[in-house]
Amino acid sequence: MKDCILHQEWEEIHQISRNKGRSASASKLVECLYRSDKEYWPKTFQNALYEAKHKTLGELWDLKADDNADVEMENEDESSGVFQMQISEEAESDNLCGSSSSASDTFQQTRYVLRKARSYQIELAEPALNGKHTMICAPTGSGKTFVSIMICEHHLRNRPAGQTGKVVFLATKVPVYEQQKKVFQDYFKTDYHIDGICGENASSTCADIVIQNNDIIVMTPQTLLNSLNNNGTIISLSTFTLMIFDECHNTTGNNPYNMLMFKYLDLKLKQGAHLLPQIVGLTASPGIGSARNVGETIDYICNICASLNIEVISTVRKNVKDLEEIVHKPEKIIRFVGTRPQNRFVDIVSQMMSKAEDLARQFHPIDGLSVMKNQCYGTQKYEQWIVDVQTKAVVLQLTNKEEESRVCRALFICTQHLRKYNDALIINEDARTKDALDYLKDYFEDIKNGNFDDIEQQLASNFEGAL
């Protein structure tokens, strides 16, 4: 398994297994495999399953079985096809001809026929064809991969006399890397030298040779970053004349994309922009991060653009109808649902919550247990407050251990009831009052069947008296 994931991840998975069990560690393993940068990990993982005598899982993972399940599609428009190529698509799928196809959680291999770019694809490529640092933002299935091929071909064929171009296409995941390398090789055939490299085991020397001997290099960003950090012969991003970032919205935080752009912008300040490659980013959406309003959204997108040195965000504006023929946008129907004019349920439950809080204060000043402020009933913030109070109450320490046990139990019961009341208010907000009331009835019915002490009896009496 260490040939599939990093040693640090392997140790982390073992730690999770010891602390949280097999299910949690299995989830972590899947997460690590999903972002693995090791070239042959799918086959290695399959072999490991068989060696561990997990035959059923090995058969489910069988790569050949996946291939047999591939779906073949051909563009029926004979006027638009002159050659075939195969391309695998993930959730962010970029089929080359722009034909609409359903997204899948798994990679599917699909056959397409292509002749010429559509009008909206030419529009998307235009700023980059003019030499601008461009973020191409278009829906999934619109054919952004083909747009990047157009830009790449134009870039290599229109270099100034005596200058040669060198393009690097960066893909965030190994399956996407393998897909895009094959797409470029199928398209350009013998016109240009094309190769790729990825994986933790790719030495800096190997990466340097691949970069030096090819016109178009497909890589994962971490592989390129490793090559730059290891002081190989490729010591600068100025080696390239064009860099294409697939799924460029990932250029944030400590992502390898962002680490590469730190180096790029550092060189820009030291050497000047004329020595650096043109940047082209591909994305279905730049995202909004944790923005809560329009202003914060604009700031977030501007930060992404600044990180990528972007001058232009290219979207389809002139040829929207052409795009809509290929990518079918679901119709949105928005209906306003007003709040209930008056809701006695909320008033009654709020009164019972106030009584439950007062009862808890008779045992201990609960307001001092949490640094968080008590919030309005029926909100997530109140839930956070009561959970914090409940957590602190469990570890409360008093000199008299018998009294400590009595107080801790009383506080736990009161806070548990407060959580259920708060849940009921949230249910009432989004569903029917009947659903919220049934939720509380079921809860009180359950506690009656358990250890029903004096405190619970008092709280239950308050509830029954309000019915």
TrEMBL record:
Domain Helicase ATP-binding: 125-304
PROSITE patterns named among the record's database cross-references: HELICASE_ATP_BIND_1
GO process terms (BP): antiviral innate immune response; cytoplasmic pattern recognition receptor signaling pathway
InterPro entries: CARD_dom, DEATH-like_dom_sf, Helicase/UvrB_N, Helicase_ATP-bd, P-loop_NTPase, RIG-I-like_C, RLR_Helicase
Pfam families in the record: CARD_2, ResIII, RIG-I_C
Phosphoprotein is among the record's keywords: yes
One GO cellular component, as annotated: cytoplasm
Swiss-Prot/TrEMBL keywords: Immunity, Innate immunity, Isopeptide bond, Phosphoprotein, Ubl conjugation
MF-aspect GO terms: ATP binding; DNA binding; double-stranded RNA binding; hydrolase activity; single-stranded RNA binding; zinc ion binding
Protein name: Helicase ATP-binding domain-containing protein
Organism: Micrurus corallinus (Brazilian coral snake)
